[in-house]
Amino acid sequence: LTDSPVILKILQNWVPRVSHYFDKEHYTYVGHQIVIQESIEHFGAVVWPGALALSQYLESNQERFNLKDKQVLEIGAGTGLVSIVACILGAYVTATDLPEVLENLSFNISRNTQNMNVHKPEVRKLVWGEGLNEDFPLSTYHYDFILATDVVYHHTALDPLLATMVYFCQPGTVLLWANKFRFSTDYEFLEKLSNIFDTTILAEFPESNVKLLKATVREN
Q: Name one Pfam family in it (predicted).
């Protein structure tokens, strides 16, 4: 883990609620108001701090990580906030998550991108570690960026998640992963990731315990 990470604070980028419904959050990124519908029924349908951190970082570092016309895959897209920000920044976005999350994900992405002059994002099912060769054959799919936020927490799918990251991270692909570090398993996952990829901590958000990491295929 080379270089010193920049120390940042997650900015209060959400604006006062216009609606009175508890399940909608309003954010402003890249000059656009983004309205996110959350669902308390699924982990993946809530905006976690890693998504705020990565959205903020992508907005602030457009020269370093230029997403315009790039192929971007988000794994564990959840509410879709990061995919929407990447779309506004000009990327060809594929947002993926578990089947039960896709309806809310599709709704948020559609609502927030439909009237913009942007590449229309695609929403697809992706169960980590399952059917990767069939659903995303490497002969057809190559991504410039893999985005992941708060995909590591206290769950049993960490090995399939790592296998999914390894599968999609081809030479030339940049993985940007932001995560709130809570448990020893989070650090163990980071160690495994660092054993496979060249890994750098780009930024830390100490108030939120969020780290933002960049990982690329290790060159022999």
A: Methyltransf_16
Q: Any residues with CB less than 8 A from the CB of 70 and at least 6 apart, and which? A: 90, 91, 92, 144, 145
Q: Give dist(CA 193, CA 73) in Å, integer.
A: 18
Q: Which residues of the chain have pLDDT under 70?
A: 1-3, 12-23, 40-45, 220
Task: Check residue 120 and report its DSSP letter.
Answer: P
pLDDT digits (tens, 9 = 90+) for 28-53: 899 999 999 887 666 666 788 999 99
Number of domains in the chain: 1
Q: What is the pLDDT of residue 19?
A: 43
pLDDT at residue 220, rounded to an integer: 67
CA-nearest of 40, 73, 41 to 145 is 73
d(C-alpha 164, C-alpha 92), whole Å:
20
β-pair partners for 197: 217
Phi-psi region of 31 (alpha: psi -120 to 50; beta: other; left: phi over 0): left
Give the burial string for 91-111 (b: 16+ CB within 10 Å, else e): bbbbbbbbeebbebbbbbbee
Q: Whole-model pTM? A: 0.91
Helices assigned H by DSSP within the chain: 49-60, 81-88, 102-113, 132-135, 158-168, 184-196
Instruction: Give residue 184's domain range.
Output: 6-217
Q: Which helix (H) or strand (E) holds 147?
A: strand 145-149
Q: Please state the length of the chain.
A: 220
Give domain status of residue 32, yes or no: yes
Q: Which two tokens stand for residue 59?
A: 């907005």
